[in-house]
Recover the amino acids of this structure.
């Protein structure tokens, strides 16, 4: 567990389009670029072992600009492959707001960040009292079928609200800007509503037509 006193003012950031990390969730990553291997080496020397996952803007003229809000994960597992690459796991700790990017000094990007406003990320597992699971699961089943994806329905059915909603938010093949909307959702209920909206939009083929029942 991480407390608010463990959160540093500056963290390394990993801009990766479409890669979403949420609090209390786990994200596996494959590191092989020299700059990120250097980042891993430096992170292992820190007490917090935090890496910030953040979405870069995907517009052609964005020039590497980052979204303001990201999520920091604690490095909780890593292993080296025979060719010198690393498989790591980040455990979501807390979202953050970028104050400014720190120029120079390292081959990877670092940012000064503010954790205010995301205190609930460090608290207990969230509940979603208004979650209509049968309706949600029906829409999800149709979405996964259309996407040609399979899943372990028994595990999904048994999963707690937060684990189910956050895991699907991270795994479903949405556009980076949609992933950002899921990240910025104020509560679990808001994230579930956003997720269902994205699923229904995909089922309509991106049109404004009603979903066929």
């Amino acid at each position: 567990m991480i407390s608010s006193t463990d959160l540093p003012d500056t963290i390394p950031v990993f801009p990766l389009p479409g890669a979403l990390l949420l609090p209390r969730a786990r994200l596996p990553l494959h590191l092989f670029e020299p700059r990120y291997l250097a980042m891993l080496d430096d992170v292992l020397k820190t007490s917090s072992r935090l890496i910030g996952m953040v979405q870069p803007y995907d517009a052609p003229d964005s020039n590497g600009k980052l979204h303001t809000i990201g999520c920091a994960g604690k490095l909780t597992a890593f292993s080296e492959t025979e060719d010198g690459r690393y498989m790591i796991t980040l455990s979501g700790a807390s979202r953050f707001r970028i104050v400014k990017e720190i120029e120079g000094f390292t081959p990877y990007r670092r940012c000064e960040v503010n954790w205010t406003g995301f205190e609930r990320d460090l608290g207990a597992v969230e509940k979603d009292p208004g979650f209509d699971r049968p309706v949600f699961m029906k829409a999800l089943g149709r979405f996964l079928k259309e996407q040609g994806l399979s899943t372990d329905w028994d595990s999904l059915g048994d999963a707690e609200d937060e684990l189910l909603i956050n895991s699907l938010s991270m795994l479903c093949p949405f556009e980076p800007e949609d992933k950002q909307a899921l990240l910025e959702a104020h509560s679990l209920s808001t994230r579930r509503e956003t997720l269902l909206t994205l699923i229904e939009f995909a089922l309509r083929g991106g049109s404004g037509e009603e979903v066929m029942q």
Notes: The radius of gyration is 18 Å. Residues 99 and 134 are 41 Å apart (CA to CA).
